[in-house]
Amino acid sequence: MNKFDNLEVTVNRYDPDIIGITESWCTPSVPDTELQLINYELFRHDRDSENKGGGVSLYVKSKLKPQETTFTSPFKDQVWLKLPICILVFAIVL
Question: Which helix (H) or strand (E) holds 4?
Fold first, then answer.
């Protein structure tokens, strides 16, 4: 939370499609509205409230239509997403 302003400035400058955050230190007491970035979907897995550290978040541009999914993994803090594959085909006639 204490670096969220820096995150917003960086996002506005570089306009990334996907942003991954580790060690977010967020707990369920922090609402999504405090972490929301314009034009991005937020997916998060918060740390256990009694532990210090941990937590992960993914921001994905809304236009990519991300969908959260599950995956079995031994890692404690994780978020898994599916993104539809878009293939653009075009032809130029000279």
Answer: helix 4-14
